[in-house]
């Protein structure tokens, strides 16, 4: 399916739409994948400020008691675990390069371990390149290096992007990507959030049509694209950007509402 303007998509909380996407939930076959930043939590200026509301944590825990739930994030698995504080869910960190499946699945996968020394070198070079640019934050994750620009003055943001591009040109084994107010260097492998999700569903013996994927970032488009035509994909945005998702939600508050509806429709829920 071709990309569409996000605000032209059906609203996921419309009663007519809910009847459609709740069908696989009622059959007890749902597999749930959730982004973290901007999806379960609001976007914040600094990564460490993205804390999960207790009501959302309780909702995700209740869902995980009834179906396989995985947090799919650009953050490291260890960091995501510390923020989510749930052992009952799986974690696909570093945009899917580091996977620890839901309890009982036995899934464990690390992609591009051989690139770790290259990422170390790229991180050191990028930190030097961004010295003196106010607000520029370098965040090292195990399988990526990020340069955050949310706190950078608009006039200086092209300098950050140029610095990331310059470092990327020094390391052919890495590729450059972008998200919301962030530039990243990752291993140049045919792997992303979408590849990780499809691998997990296949390894768990799940039905792709029963997959639910909710995300807000540009990197979530990799999952929307690979799931195109199967499952339920929801983009979280108030902006009218192009997307391969099939439904829309405005913000994390609406995500929590959708998850509540999903939980209520599951077998065994009251």
How would you describe the overall organization of this protein?
It is built from 9 helices and 14 strands. Helix content is 33%, strand content 21%. A hairpin with a 2-residue loop joins strand 9 and strand 10. Helix 3 runs parallel beside helix 9. The chain has 270 residues and is an alpha/beta fold. The chain has an 8-stranded mixed β-sheet with strand order 6-5-4-3-2-11-12-14, with helices on both faces. It has a 4-stranded antiparallel β-sheet with strand order 7-8-10-9, with helices on one face.
Report the uncertain regions: none
The percentage of residues in β strands lies in: 15-25%
Give the number of helices. Answer: 9
| Average predicted local confidence, pLDDT | 94
Coarse morphology? globular
The arrangement of helices and strands along the chain is EHHEHEHEEEHEEHEEHEHEEEH
Question: Helical proportion?
Answer: 25-40%
Task: Using the CA coordinates, give the radius of gyration.
Answer: 18 Å
Class based on secondary structure composition and strand pairing: alpha/beta
Number of separate strands: 14
